[in-house]
Specification:
The protein is α+β, with helices and mostly antiparallel strands and about 280 residues long. The chain is built from five helices and 14 strands. The strands form two sheets. Strands 3, 4, 5, 6, 7, 8, 9, 10, 11, 12, 13 and 14 form a twelve-stranded antiparallel sheet that branches.
Length: about 280
């Protein structure tokens, strides 16, 4: 944490008066000596992931809001056949209490179908509109809503929860905080890791669709090939410059497996001084 030490200056005054006589020396002038101001101790350089996260939270909260760009992809591969989608969006996010978010983007499927998407988060409620469909809403804690909200500021809280699992790489150009699985492993062996729990929340909607289509693989048979989350901070300002999440799962199916992968990156474009307000008819 940055520290500020206030300095005060004390003024010492002394005066000596002598007795009155023809031989007496004239009264001396009052002597004044100012004490040197107390020196301000420089803030200690951050060293641990927790210290860098605290500085990042302070840096992001110093602005009224932020603008982000989002790029992402999601895919399923079965027996060499691939299906999936790419996603891009522009996000405005305020930092007040409560915070608010507005995202406008679009997805493009592997079949070439493009669909628009707009998202609001206001007072803890998320509002989602896809294409020409009606608005739907729910608490931002709802996995279906949360999975659509790309918010690198909220990622700071997630990294705090990861605790000692966060690794740190620091240089003059950038600060990198990362959490990841170290190797491919059966889901039961790693499911308690924070980054794996997040990856499972991302996988859940797709897994439900697969099971509805007849894929009955138990979770004990699923392999986590990769789960990784990364925050990059500016080494001078400690502001978040990017946030990335990646995961890869293998889901058993027949004599083979289905590969599920997701890769999303949000990059900070700059401060935002506007407001996020729900339009009429929404909510």
């Amino acid at each position: 944490m940055r520290r500020r030490i206030a300095a005060t200056t004390a003024l010492l005054v002394s005066a000596a008066l002598t007795g009155c006589s023809v031989d007496a020396a004239p009264p001396s002038e009052p002597s004044r000596r100012a004490a040197a101001p107390a020196k301000t101790e420089p803030a200690p350089a951050p060293e641990t992931p927790a210290e860098f996260l605290a500085l990042a939270e302070e840096a992001m909260a110093a602005e009224e809001g932020w603008r982000f760009t989002v790029r992402g992809s999601e895919e399923l591969v079965l027996q060499g056949q691939q299906s999936g989608a790419t996603y891009s969006a522009q996000v405005h996010r305020t930092t007040g209490d409560p915070w608010a978010l507005h995202s406008v983007g679009s997805s493009r499927s592997s079949k070439g179908v493009t669909k628009s998407e707009e998202i609001y988060v206001v007072d803890g409620i998320g509002y989602v509109k896809e294409g020409d469909a009606a608005w739907r809403h729910g608490p931002v804690s709802d996995p279906e809503i949360a999975g659509r909200v790309e918010d690198p500021v909220a990622a700071l809280d997630a990294f705090e929860d990861y605790g000692d699992a966060v690794s740190l790489t620091a240089s003059d150009q950038r600060i990198e905080l990362r959490v990841r699985t170290t190797s491919a492993a059966p889901l039961p062996a790693v499911r308690d890791q924070g980054v794996v729990r997040k990856a499972l929340r991302e996988l859940a909607p797709t897994l439900e669709q697969l099971r509805a289509a007849g894929v009955t693989a138990p979770e004990s048979g699923i392999t986590v090939e990769r789960a990784e989350e990364k925050l990059v901070l500016n080494s001078s300002t400690y502001q978040v410059t990017s946030h990335t999440f990646r995961c890869v799962f293998r889901i058993p199916y027949g004599t083979g497996s289905i590969r599920y992968a997701q890769d999303v990156t949000e990059r900070t474009s700059g401060p935002y001084e506007g407001a996020v307000v729900l339009p009429e008819g929404v909510g």
